[in-house]
User: Fold this.
Amino acid sequence: MCAKIYCIVVAAGSGKRFGSPLPKQFCQLGGRPVLMTAIDRLRRFLPESEILLVLNRDYFGDWARMCGEHGFLSPEVIAGGDTRWQSVKNALCAIGECSEEDIVMVHDGARPLVMQSTLEELVGAIRCGSHGAIPVVDVTDSLRMLDGGCRSHAVDRACYRAVQTPQAFRLSLLRSAYELPYTTDMTDDASVMDAAGYSNPVLVAGHEATLKITRPQDLDWVELIMSSIDGQA
Ligand code: C5P
Assistant:
């Protein structure tokens, strides 16, 4: 039997840093909520996958209304938790029975521009036997480590990579990693896998277009990038 691919799109954050009353995943990008672009691209590039959408329960009604307004078919919606970790865990619990070969991808709904090449590399790495694969990009700014107080020192940026989503894993292993108690350094799924001993995920090429919308001006950037990548993915 062919392995199933599940895509968990986490979008239950309140986006406090964004500073708008509406969480960033519902803000307008190209005339519709950011989240619809992220979901549509996953559907386009991974048509065989099953998508689960994680939302804060307070926004279930707003999302249903937005889907109605845009004629958008929502994936199954799961209630999120107080942390990203809890939101992912809720979705993993909702998946039910799985086979050893099944794959899960976890994606931030605030990153609308998922790229086809990244998805292909992620799925390819897991199908080749890796337990996990994550997209990374080079760090282009110089970096400094904070030493406490007002002291800091330069570190070699060549030793670091910035990590994006989607992140892909063997579903059964990610589930077992999510049995561990939460710690604040579990900011993504690869860090949860690390804590469970499944370290060294395959690093695949992320894409600068896959930036996470964090500040309001990021929406303008993403809209510009979207118009330039349209048709080439
Ligand atoms: O806050 P940050 O931008 O790092 O969140 C990354 C992703 O995790 C976002 O898509 C956000 O909606 C999601 N998230 C979530 N549940 C939370 C917190 C964040 O699904 N409690």
User: Anything to note?
Assistant: The two ends are 30 Å apart (CA to CA).
